[in-house]
Design a protein that fits this description.
single chain; alpha+beta; five-stranded antiparallel sheet; 43% strand
């Protein structure tokens, strides 16, 4: 139920309205247990494409992971 709430299209639309490609963002990575700084590459329907500032790796993450 929580995942369904986080992936709600209305919620994603509200988040997307605040984002632009090349914008700097951060998010919490639970695998490494640290905050990651990244640049937005593209905005998808349910995911956002980012590139990590530290190592240049590209990832697709859920919108709800972003720290706004």
């Amino acid at each position: 139920i929580l995942r369904k709430m986080l992936d709600d299209p209305k919620r994603i639309h509200e988040i997307r309205a605040q984002l632009r490609p090349n914008q700097m963002v951060s998010y919490f990575d639970d695998r490494t247990n640290q905050e990651i700084e990244a640049t937005i590459l593209d905005l998808g329907r349910t995911y956002v494409g980012v590139q990590h500032r530290q190592d240049g790796k590209k990832w697709k993450i859920h919108y709800y992971m972003l720290k706004l």
